[in-house]
Design goal:
Shape: globular
Order of helices and strands: EE
Distance between the termini: 32 Å
Structural class: little secondary structure
Number of helices: 0
Number of strands: 2
Radius of gyration: 15 Å
Helix content: under 10%
Length: about 180
Amino acid sequence: QEMFDATFYNCAGLTGGIPSGLFAKVSGAPAESMFGNTFSGCSGLTGAIPEGLFAGVKGTPAKSMFYKTFGDCTGLTSVPAGLFAGIDGTPADGMFKWTFRNSGLKGSIPAGLFAGVKGAPAFEMFDGTFYNCSKLTGSIPSALFAGIDGAPAENMFRVTFYGCSGLSGQIPENLFA
């Protein structure tokens, strides 16, 4: 539980990019609260989030995993399509809550970013995931959350795109297919 929770929390003086192999030795199923607040508040980190940063983490989502992982990381510029490629299975409570909140992400949201998440909704899943990411541009990918199917859960998708003023185009009809 709480693996890498708040590891670099509010380390605003850290500079440069996140090393691509930082978690290379971490492998296996997700743990509860895994990577929660790991880089939150690290405004000095810059550049793209590395594609394979979480490559060894594979399996069903765990409760509160990736909670505010990159929150307030205003210097990070892009999120790779395969960042969460190993996450595959039924949603968990609070997964991806505030993951990129107030970050400096630019460009478009990658299609298929959450492609492995499939099944019945969970409490607070995707709550504020891209909250106030005003530098994101382009259209919201069609079927970004297409794997979610079932009865609504409390606060699912609450303020997911709040303040994303740079997004454009139409809201995809099958966004929540």
